[in-house]
Amino acid sequence: MQELHDAPLAPLTTFRLGGPATRLVTATTDAEVVETVQRADAEGTPLLLIGGGSNLVIGDKGFEGTALRIATTGFALDGTALELAAGEVWTEAVARSTAAGLAGIECLAGIPGSAGATPIQNVGAYGQEVSSVLTEVLAYDRREHRTVTLSGAECAFSYRHSRFKAEPDRHVVLRVRFALADEGGLSAPIRYAETARALGVAAGERAPLEQVRETVLRLRAGKGMVLDPDDHDTWSAGSFFTNPILDEAGFAAFRRRVADRLGADTEPPAYPAGEGRTKTSAAWLIDKAGFTKGYGSGPARISGKHTLALTNRGAATTEDLLALAREVVTGVREAFGITLVNEPVTVGVEL
């Protein structure tokens, strides 16, 4: 277990932003993770958990406390059951499970970050979510001071949300377990229209597993959503805002705002979200509010490949990034009456 003091955190995040931590501990076993958490809690020291750093916005002043980098490893297949240590690199785990002929997470290829972060956000893309195949999460419960096993149902998953996100200071994910499927080398049914078009199949059909993974990687790379140290469009947290979900009255008011601004013939994106609710597109809102690809003139700008990604062009500070995010939130609210919500976790700062 490595311990450093006044340690820079920016290199541990995909934004490459943020100040130092008072103490940075790198844990490579579950026991080291639990020991570090217990020590911080006993001392009353603030604790920041870091996996792949792909969902963090850390303030320029850094973090006054213990930053725990979870670098545990472990990839275990038993038939179609997959267990991953929290520190496993997610995109590598997807590649290995696909190579083993197992379907269920192939459309989640290329998502940066660690396996332990996937249940926290209920990570999803291109028609798949981890909640659909996750069976159990092994976690340390800081309230009960013991290791617990939570079923998928107990994780209380919803769109980009879970009990871990609702109670951010309670559970520390140690292991994640999935039930994948052997479909004879084929994928799960393709649910996402863009993926189906790229594969040349109809929605609901299957395609060769590796072809699906490679197609998703190409689609993501075209939007700057696959990490590349030489491409500033990937110096981001991926999608910075979640897609808004509106009730019937809210969506009706939104449609009126769209008609007033863009014309009566313009229909905004709309997707059923259950219980009389409708999901619309944050990327569409941002673009139609005037924040197009590449927007900005400073060191933090909207990606040149995707309006939903805010990026560090190489010399940005966290305050530069937040100023851009606030400008976008204000512009969308004024144009359409919808307040966007940030997806990344903010540390020491607020949007």
Describe the structure.
The structure is a single chain. The protein is an alpha+beta fold and 351 residues long. The protein folds into three domains: 2-70, Uridine Diphospho-n-acetylenolpyruvylglucosamine Reductase, domain 2 (2-Layer Sandwich), CATH 3.30.43; 75-222, 2-Layer Sandwich (Uridine Diphospho-n-acetylenolpyruvylglucosamine Reductase, domain 3), CATH 3.30.465.10; 232-347, Alpha-Beta Complex (Uridine Diphospho-n-acetylenolpyruvylglucosamine Reductase, domain 1). The protein is 27% helix and 24% strand. Strands 6-7-13-11-12 form a five-stranded antiparallel sheet. It has a four-stranded mixed sheet with strand order 1-2-5-3, with helices on one face. A three-stranded antiparallel sheet has the order 15-17-16. The longest helix is centred in the last third of the chain and has 19 residues, at 318-336. The mean pLDDT is 96. Keywords: Cell cycle, Cell division, Cell shape, Cell wall biogenesis/degradation, Cytoplasm, FAD, Flavoprotein, NADP, Oxidoreductase, Peptidoglycan synthesis.
